[in-house]
Design goal:
This protein has helices at residues 10-21, 33-42, 55-60, 76-88, 102-105, 126-139, 172-178, 219-225, 243-254, 268-277, 291-296, 312-325, 354-366, 444-451, and strands at residues 2-6, 25-30, 46-49, 68-71, 94-98, 122-124, 145-149, 154-160, 184-191, 194-196, 209-215, 235-239, 260-265, 282-285, 304-307, 330-333, 350-352, 371-377, 382-388, 398-399, 409-416, 419-421, 428-429, 434-440. The protein is an alpha/beta fold. The strands form five sheets. The protein has a six-stranded parallel beta sheet with strand order 3-2-1-4-5-6, sandwiched between helices. A six-stranded parallel beta sheet has the order 14-13-12-15-16-17, with helices on both faces. α1 packs parallel to α13 and α6 crosses α9 (243-254). The relative contact order is 0.10.
Length: 458
């Protein structure tokens, strides 16, 4: 597949890395020569410096025979014009654009993106993706990370192990024997800042952060086994009433659980807009770091505090202050991945990274056939790859114990005939099965090789 990616920032770079590793022909376009140079030096891609929306630049990038254009620059308007030029001048079959402005995303203007108007096949909204990720965190307050796979039937839970966890110092293989009916498997352990894929004889210790694949129906039981109580939040405080905070508050209002929500917003205009848009949510105008305002908002009774201002450091400080005043859980929006290691020392329970959520969303819309999705863990420390096994894949017809997986790779879940099962060494992977595979970053290319099919399949 020949793909042109417009925008060589973190999102464009990550997408280029994924697609180029699968032997796609990738060209990265950006008007910043340093970003283009970084990409060509580190990835197997072609680079071109120029404005992505200019027809001559797209022509030099190979748009005449491209299969797809992904417009992920920092400008909504450049992304929209790029898709229009790709369609009108070069007849590129598939166009994906990242759009931030909520005005462009209003449902009443959805006809704008029809082929005879502004031809964009898939519109990705970072704010919408971040809001959905935040809602998943709020819905599972006992975890620091949660993501659904295999059509929602399997989940990956990130769990921080406390000193009172009942299964500490127990080899993982014994856990499988003790809880034989539990459809769950530990695929990753972060200890002292390092993420590993555990061996069956490895034990868990207080302070570990673990990643567990579980059947959705067994999620609550899994949490209990690892010392966490599954509960649904009844009171949520949102600090930051911009686009992300407003989307989250709206969804909480619509939910069946009747969550009591309050919003704190520093900008008066944003606060007024949020107050007008929300029906049952109380909106307070003021600084989310103001201890008296936090108390007025009932932070001490909050089951979760979500900090989604446009400043990473404000989100971190507000999360720390909210926990100090009595909030049960804090979630911070963090753009800078170098700040993520501070989460543990600062006692912040979870975070949302807009870049990784946007990348995962774009990749979901790109994938066809064997690879259905890719989810990035931590600061690109590992990935979960969801893929369908085809007849010519090296995985087909073999038991898991007989497959030459690298040490940093574990199969988290297998879906056979629509049913999700917990994988064991004797589980045979068959054609048509869908697998969710955890892989440390260094081992991702080996997994992609195992998932590739022979040329005669086509």
């Amino acid at each position: 597949m020949k793909v042109i990616i417009c925008g060589a920032g973190q999102v464009g770079w990550q997408i280029a890395r994924h697609l180029s590793s699968e032997n796609n022909d990738v060209t990265l376009v950006d008007n910043n020569p340093d970003l283009v140079r970084r990409a060509t030096d580190t990835l197997d891609v072609q680079g071109l410096t120029g404005f992505a929306s200019h027809p001559d630049v797209l022509d030099r990038a190979g748009a005449r025979d491209a299969d797809m254009v992904i417009a992920a620059t920092f400008s909504d308007e450049v992304n929209m014009v790029t898709c229009q030029v790709a369609h009108s001048v070069f007849s590129v079959p598939r166009k994906i654009a990242r759009l931030r402005s909520q005005s462009y995303l209003n449902a009443i203007y959805s006809d704008l993106y029809r082929r005879d108007h502004l031809p964009i096949d898939v519109v990705i909204s970072p704010e919408k993706e971040v809001a959905e990720a935040a809602l998943r965190r709020i819905a599972s307050p006992a975890t620091f990370e949660t993501e659904s796979f295999l059509g929602g039937d399997a989940r990956m839970l990130g769990i921080h192990l406390d000193a009172d966890c009942p299964v500490l110092d127990t080899p993982l293989k014994q856990l499988s024997e003790l809880f034989s009916t539990l459809r769950a498997i530990v695929v990753g352990v972060r200890r002292d800042g390092t993420l590993i894929a555990p061996e069956p004889g490895d034990q868990l210790y207080a302070g570990d952060q673990i990643y567990v694949f579980t059947h959705a129906a067994d999620a609550d039981r899994t949490l209990e086994i690892f010392g966490k109580r599954a509960y649904r939040p009844e009171r949520v405080l949102i600090i930051g009433g911009g686009n992300v905070g407003l989307v989250v508050a709206r969804d909480l209002e619509k939910g069946a659980n009747r969550v009591r929500t309050r919003v704190i917003e520093l900008d008066r205009g944003n606060a007024e807009r949020a107050a007008d848009a929300l029906e049952r949510t109380i909106v307070l105008h003021g600084d989310g770091l103001d201890i008296e305002l936090l108390r007025e908002a009932g932070v001490d009774r909050a089951d979760a505090v979500l900090c989604v201002t446009d400043d990473d450091k404000t989100n971190l400080l507000a999360s720390v202050r909210a926990k100090a005043v009595g909030a049960k859980m804090s979630i911070a929006l963090v753009n800078d991945p170098s700040l993520v290691p501070l989460m543990g020392p600062l006692n912040i329970d979870a975070h949302v990274n807009p870049r990784s959520t946007t990348v995962s969303s774009i990749l979901r819309h790109i994938r066809h056939g064997r690879v259905r999705g890719v989810y990035s863990i931590g600061d690109a420390e590992a990935e979960v790859i969801e893929a369908q096994v085809l007849s010519t894949s090296p995985l087909a017809g073999r038991a898991i114990r007989d497959i030459d997986f690298p040490e940093g790779v574990l199969v988290g879940a297998v879906q056979k005939d629509g049913k999700v099962i917990r994988p064991t060494g004797s589980t045979r992977i068959e054609e048509g099965d869908t697998v969710a595979i955890f892989a440390l970053s260094a081992d991702v290319p080996a997994v992609e090789t195992l998932l590739q099919v022979s040329i005669d399949f086509f």
